[in-house]
Design goal:
Distance between the termini: 40 Å
Helix content: 40-55%
Number of helices: 12
Largest sheet: 7 strands, mixed
Shape: globular
Radius of gyration: 22 Å
Strand order of the largest sheet: 5-4-3-6-7-9-8
Strand content: 5-15%
Number of strands: 9
Length: 277
């Protein structure tokens, strides 16, 4: 009963807060359950050359093959643009592939940093439960490798993210320690007019001749999930063969019309990734 003056006991508010936390925990558990189911489905094995392979470990093995061409094997991983994996099957398949890939490469989940401004609070909690690390801020792809061999997992990301990443690590020494899994650079070159590529995505344009690229093997079940996806690496010898002028311009990219969510955009405010740190 309300006392004179209109105040009410705080117990009702505490119960509502407790119910809210319980509902969030239930939703997070449901996200993990759907992910486990998706991963279980993808772990159905089939024979291949006398071996038993998972459907997704076939492209995972294809990622390992090019690693002999980089300066050192990846010791860490950065994942951008995973999407709403709680409600999108394609995003769940991409996350399942990422987890299998970390196992294949021997990278502990705690050395894999993840960011997408679209993550819900429940999805962020699920990623933490899986042992992954949430980046607190929107880096716009500008993540430095800090001298360590790094795998960047960026399936179906915007072109500006790839361009920003290259700019941030624009030296032969840094690029030679990177592997990028994402949209085919060759495909980007084929689809864009050369003047637009050189104007808006100049670092992609300049690195093309120093890039090795291998498309992920196609699987009929994942045509939409991994279409136009390639493994990219940058052999040191090929980078050294580029003209010195290629390395002279290190101006930070700017974009008039940008297909990525920028730091400070409304979609990022209140990011669950930041809240989960």
């Amino acid at each position: 009963m309300a006392a004179e003056g209109g105040w009410r006991p705080a117990g009702g508010r505490r119960r509502r807060q407790r119910r809210g936390r319980e509902e969030e925990e239930e939703e997070s558990d449901a996200v993990l359950r759907r992910l486990r189911e998706a991963r279980k489905n993808e772990l159905l094995t089939f024979p291949c050359a006398g071996r038993s392979l998972t459907r997704l470990s076939v492209p995972a093995g294809a990622v390992r093959a090019p690693l002999g061409g980089i300066a050192e094997p990846p010791a860490r991983c950065v994942c951008y643009g995973l999407g709403r994996f709680s409600c999108c099957p394609a995003a769940r398949h991409q996350l399942a592939f990422l987890l299998l890939l970390l196992e294949e490469l021997g990278v502990p989940p705690g050395r894999c940093s993840v960011f997408d401004p679209a993550f819900s609070t429940q999805e962020a909690a699920a990623l933490v439960e899986l042992g992954l690390r949430l980046l607190p801020d929107n880096e716009e792809g500008k993540h430095g490798i800090e001298g360590s061999g790094t795998l960047f997992y960026m399936v179906h990301c915007g072109k500006a993210l790839y361009n920003n990443l290259l700019w941030r690590n624009w030296s032969a020494g840094a690029l030679s320690k990177m592997v990028i899994i994402g949209n085919s650079f060759k495909g980007i070159e084929e689809r864009l007019l050369s003047r637009i590529l050189e104007r808006d995505y100049s670092y992609i344009a300049k690195v093309l001749k120093g890039t090795e690229e291998a498309a992920l093997p196609a699987h009929p079940q994942y045509l939409d999930t991994f279409n136009d996806t390639s493994v990219h690496w940058f052999p040191l010898q090929k980078l050294k063969e580029l003209s010195p002028e290629v390395w002279d311009c290190v101006e930070e990219p700017t974009y008039q019309d940008c297909e990525i969510i920028r730091k400070g955009d409304g979609a990022e405010q209140g990011s669950p990734a930041a809240a989960a740190e």
